[in-house]
Write a structure and sequence with these properties.
It is built from 13 helices and eight strands. It is α/β, with parallel strands linked by helices. It has a six-stranded parallel β-sheet with strand order 4-3-8-7-5-6, sandwiched between helices. Strands 1-2 form a two-stranded antiparallel sheet. Helix 7 crosses helix 8. The two termini are 24 Å apart.
Length: 235
C-alpha cells in the first residue's frame, strides 16, 4: 500500500506513484480528500494556489508525461485515466455510498444522472446540478447543500483549475472523496466522443483531440517545454 511519504515531486507537484486503480481507490476511501488527475498541463500551469491544493490532497498520474517522468526516476507507476476512475469508484461503492454529481450543462448533467441510475440500479445520488455557477450566491448555495446532504463521494466536472478550487472550498465544509472530472460527463453521455482504443493504447489521446480540434494547438504548444524537461532529465 502506498504511503504518504512515497509522494514524488515533479516540478513542485507531489504525485503518488499508485501501482493500480484499486490501490488509489483504497487509499482515498481510507483517508478522504480530493483526487487530482495530474498531467503535463497541470504541472505546467500550476500556481501557488493550485499547487497547494494538489499537494494537500491525492494526486495521481493521469497523463503519459508524468508517468514517463516518474519512470525516469526508477518509480513503477501506472497511468490512471480520470474519465475511467470515477466509474470504477461508482462500480465499487454504488450500493453502499451516496453521491453528488456536479458539472457540465444542465442537459448533460441530467443525462449523466439518468444513465448512472440506469447502469447502477439503486445508486443513491443525493444531489446534482450543472457546472455554471453564475453568482457568488449560487456557489455558496451549492457548498451549503453539499455540507447539508453529506455525500460520501462528490464528482465535479468543470475543468481546471475551477473544479479544484471549488472542491477545496467544499472539502473544508464537508470531508468526503472528491474527484475533478473535466469533460468526463460529456464523454459518458456520448455528447463528445473519446479517442478510439488504438489512440488510447498508444498514449496518443492528446493527438486525437488535436486532430479533431485544431484550435487546441495554442494550448498544446506549451508541451514542448515538458518534452524538453523529459529529454534532458530535469525532473
Amino acid at each position: 500500500m502506498v504511503k504518504e511519504d512515497t509522494r514524488i515531486s515533479l516540478k513542485g507537484i507531489n504525485v503518488f506513484p499508485f501501482a493500480s486503480v484499486d490501490e488509489l481507490i483504497d487509499y482515498a476511501n481510507d483517508r478522504k480528500g480530493i483526487l487530482v488527475a495530474v498531467n503535463a498541463e497541470k504541472i505546467l500551469n500550476a500556481t501557488d494556489q493550485t499547487r497547494q491544493i494538489i499537494n494537500s490532497n491525492i494526486a495521481y498520474c493521469d497523463g503519459v508525461g508524468p508517468v514517463m517522468a516518474l519512470r525516469q526516476k526508477g518509480v513503477d507507476v501506472v497511468k490512471i485515466a480520470g474519465c475511467e476512475l470515477w466509474l470504477k469508484i461508482i462500480g465499487r461503492y454504488y450500493d453502499s455510498k451516496t453521491f453528488y454529481i456536479i458539472g457540465a450543462s444542465k442537459k448533460v448533467n441530467d443525462a449523466t444522472v439518468e444513465k448512472l441510475r440506469r447502469e447502477f440500479p439503486g445508486i443513491r445520488i443525493v444531489g446534482h446540478r450543472d457546472g455554471f455557477l453564475r453568482t457568488p450566491q449560487e456557489r455558496q448555495e451549492l457548498i451549503d447543500d453539499v455540507a447539508e446532504k453529506r455525500p460520501d463521494v462528490v464528482f465535479v466536472a468543470m475543468g481546471s483549475p475551477k473544479q479544484e478550487i471549488l472542491m477545496d472550498e467544499m472539502f473544508k465544509r464537508h470531508k468526503a472523496i472528491y474527484q475533478g472530472l473535466g469533460g468526463s460527463f460529456d464523454v459518458y453521455t456520448g455528447t463528445v466522443p473519446r479517442a478510439p482504443k488504438w489512440w488510447l493504447d498508444h498514449n496518443l489521446e492528446f493527438a486525437y483531440r488535436l486532430i479533431r480540434q485544431p484550435k487546441r494547438i495554442k494550448r498544446n504548444i506549451k508541451y514542448v517545454r515538458f518534452a524538453w524537461w523529459l529529454a534532458t532529465k530535469q525532473f
